[in-house]
Amino acid sequence: MSAYFTEIFTILAPLVANRVYPVTFPQAPAVPVWPSIRYTPTGGAVQLTSCGDANDPDVSIQIDVVATTFAAAITLTELVKTAFNTFSVPAVLDNFPMFDYDHETKTHRGILQYTIAGSSV
């Protein structure tokens, strides 16, 4: 599973000058720089096959893109979707992208939920 996290960083880092973070964005006293991307494992399942457990589990990942404008958040969300098309195993978008606004940071967030289908390998 950790190979998936390495690959997520590799495919998304060029989109935001390497500002791709697992689970949380930089916290005080560090100041986050936008745009940035966060990925958070949200679950998964080991698929049973007639030969036993699949080699790799299916992993659910939430991708949060954060930008200073709504237009930039939309654009970055689309770039993430394109980047995930290059993932080494099937990465299936589970939802229509959602968007929200954070009044504290004055940023716009796009939210994508993927299932990385390792069991299909």
Pick out its properties.
alpha+beta; 121 residues; 8 strands; STM4215-like; two-stranded antiparallel sheet; six-stranded mixed β-sheet; 38% strand
At a glance:
By secondary structure, the chain is α+β, with helices and mostly antiparallel strands. The chain contains two helices and eight strands. The strands form two sheets. Strands 1, 2, 5, 6, 7 and 8 form a six-stranded mixed beta sheet that branches. It has a two-stranded antiparallel sheet with strand order 3-4.
Strand and helix map with partners:
Blueprint lengths: L1 H11 L7 E3 L13 E10 L2 E2 L2 E2 L4 E10 L2 H15 L6 E3 L4 E5 L4 E11 L4
Parallel strand pairs: 1-2
Antiparallel strand pairs: 2-5, 3-4, 5-8, 6-8, 7-8
Provide an overview of this structure.
The protein is of the alpha+beta class. It starts with a helix and ends with a strand. A hairpin with a 2-residue loop joins β3 and β4 (52-53). It contains two helices and eight strands.
Which series of helices and strands comes N to C? HEEEEEHEEE
CATH topology: STM4215-like
Q: What's the CATH class label?
A: Alpha Beta
What is the number of helical segments per DSSP (H or I, 4+ residues)? 2
CATH architecture: 2-Layer Sandwich
Contiguous runs where pLDDT drops below 50 for at least 5 residues: none
How many individual β-strands? 8
Intertermini distance: 13 Å
Provide the gyration radius in Å. Answer: 15 Å
Assign a percent range to the helix content: 10-25%
Q: Kindly report the name of the CATH homologous superfamily.
A: Phage tail protein-like
- Envelope shape: globular
Strand content: 35-45%
Question: Structural class of the secondary structure composition?
Answer: alpha+beta
Give the number of domains: 1
What is the makeup of the main sheet?
Answer: 6 strands, mixed
